[in-house]
Amino acid sequence: MSRSTLWAGRILTALPALLMTFSAALKFFGPPEIAQQFTSKYGYPPGSLAIIGVLELACVLVYLVPQTAVLGAILMAAYLGGAVSTHVRASEPWFAPVLTAVMAWLGLYLRDPRLRALVPLRRPEGVTAPS
């Protein structure tokens, strides 16, 4: 694996982790308008904001530990799928959570050779497609 591939993977890993950490921090320490928006606009119960923030941070922590990064990427994708659903329901743009999940998986793909071996982008030499 080249150094540039490894660094690209690290950067693409850090971006979604930072975005989700910032989002969780807003849920804990943000202005009261955020809690108001969650209840009035999105329809979540008032007490759910802290639970959602804890789940968001837990996904990020599991993702950042190399031994559990694949599980973390799965959990982040599931969490972000819920975010997409919330945005679609509120008739808001939904592509930011999708791009965040893609960045998370691409970052993991670029920095983990085991994942690249498991999911190659092209067929190995000499292997033909089944007919």
Per DSSP E runs of 2 or more residues, the count of β-strands stands at 0
SS class: mainly alpha
Task: Summarize the helix and strand pattern as letters.
Answer: HHHHHH
Whole-number count of domains = 1
Features:
elongated, mainly alpha, 131 residues, 6 helices
Description:
The protein has 6 helices and no strands. It has one domain (3-115). Helices cover 74% and strands 0% of the residues. The protein is an all-alpha fold. It has helices at 3-29, 32-40, 48-64, 69-89, 95-111, 113-118.
Topology:
Blueprint: H1 3-29, H2 32-40, H3 48-64, H4 69-89, H5 95-111, H6 113-118
Helix pairs in contact: 1-3, 1-5, 3-4, 4-5
In short:
With 131 residues, the protein is mainly alpha-helical. It has helices at residues 3-29, 32-40, 48-64, 69-89, 95-111, 113-118.
